[in-house]
Amino acid sequence: MPAQYFTERTFAFLRDLAANNDRAWFDANRDRYEADVRGPALAFIVDFAPRLREISQRFRADPRKSGGSLFRIHRDTRFSADKSPYKTHTGIQFRHEAGKDAHAPGFYLHLEPGGCFAGVGCWHPDAGALARIRDAIVEDPAGWRAAARSGPFAKTYELAGESLTRPPRGYDARHPLVEDLKRKDHIGVAELTRKRVTSAGFLDDFESLCRAGAPFVRWLCGAGGHAF
Prior knowledge:
- Strands 1-2-3-5-4 form a five-stranded antiparallel β-sheet.
- By secondary structure, it is an alpha+beta fold.
- The two termini are 32 Å apart.
- The chain is built from nine helices and five strands, in the order H-H-H-E-E-E-H-H-H-E-H-E-H-H.
- The chain has one domain: BirA Bifunctional Protein, domain 2.
């Protein structure tokens, strides 16, 4: 029988954390976090690894508790007015081997009460990486359209993320793909229901989502000079 990773207990913990976002509550409920959130997420990463290798040998499924594919639950509050210590969602990123952080090309799973989704692409790439993507769109518009506007990707994902209000400096404001040149993120998002995420077949489902997004990620890797 297919394994079930995420359950209603996963989302119950995240809801309760949102209502009690402080260290004392978290310490008192740490066993719940390990059993219902982190444990299932790490098992999901382990079991997805061989499937990811079939999609691409260049992406990593790293099941370490810290520093791997699972994002830490602690928020970085140094530059935020919101000092809540914990995230109220769980994020898993299978990133490219050349990447050191969340801005690398990757496949992503986001679990949050009322807001689950699968994501693919590059989120907030640095200035150099973003310029290379924009240059590749200008140099290969047909390739970009094929990757971002057709096939399984276009049927599965919506382009999302932040954009500039004006064309970036150095690019033609009249370019037919100017709206894509304005993008600060190059990501596709597929919304997921909680029922879908908690189903026993979700590992297969997520693999299908990643396969649908693979041509888009492959194009972005090529734009950045990375093998896929």
